[in-house]
Amino acid sequence: MSENTSPESATPEDADPSSRLPGRVVDLEGLKALAHPLRIQIIDALSIYGSFTATGLAERLGESSGATSYHLRQLEKHGFVREDLERGSGRERWWERVPGGISIVPSTSRESPAARTASETVSREWRRSQNERLEDFERNAMDQLAPEWLDASTQSMANLHLTVEQLAQLSNDMEELVNRYAVAYRRQRIPGSRPVQVQYNTFPVLDGKEIPPAVGHTTTGSK
Question: 45, 60 in Cβ contact below 8 A?
């Protein structure tokens, strides 16, 4: 889908399945740059609510504007945020999240004890943020949302028994589906819309046992 497509007329079906938001695989230096709780909170706020000034972020996050300014500059240095030129003024800079996913590959996390610590810090902060959003929804949605928003929302879980290939296919299929919506609607700001967060996890249950393949047979994923 062209970057110039009007968000008001875009739909997930309009998005070219081969087109993706520009993603980023984080290297060791980028991982170290992310490994600070406030930086994760800044990226999270920019992702959900859109552009902010350092002062606006400070008010939302309960920090000083000096702290948010410093961490924004560090995030900019490593390519995670950028100046929002459409909203900038001569007096104060507006900041936005650089579009696209952020991926931390296991090989990077295992490069050194410091890399593992940084990776654990980043993962923990993302998970804390996700849990806070979900818990806020569970506690307050009935009082704060109209019935149609409640009906449109869902919480679900499925327990499956898959091969590694099938798990990878499921993860890829779900990522492709969410990406189509992200491509179609990431710039949408129309009456009736509001920030929506999609959360899903796919992972093997660690205390479950892998069934060994039968002698002479190879386990493959179904398509």
Answer: yes
Domain extent, residue 160, equals 12-185
Cα 92 to Cα 59: distance, rounded to the nearest angstrom: 15
Confidence at 77, pLDDT banded by 50, 70, 90 = very high
pLDDT tens digits, one per residue of 37-50? 999 999 999 999 99
- For 27, 104, 128, 159, 174, the CA distances from 76, given in Å and listed in that order, are 15, 18, 23, 40, 30
> The pTM is what?
0.77
Would residue 210 count as lying in a domain? no
Whether residue 7 lies inside any domain: the answer is no
User: Does 7 score more than 70 pLDDT?
Assistant: no
Determine, yes or no, domain membership for 154. Answer: yes
Q: The dihedral of CA 9, 4, 176, 191: what is its sign?
A: negative
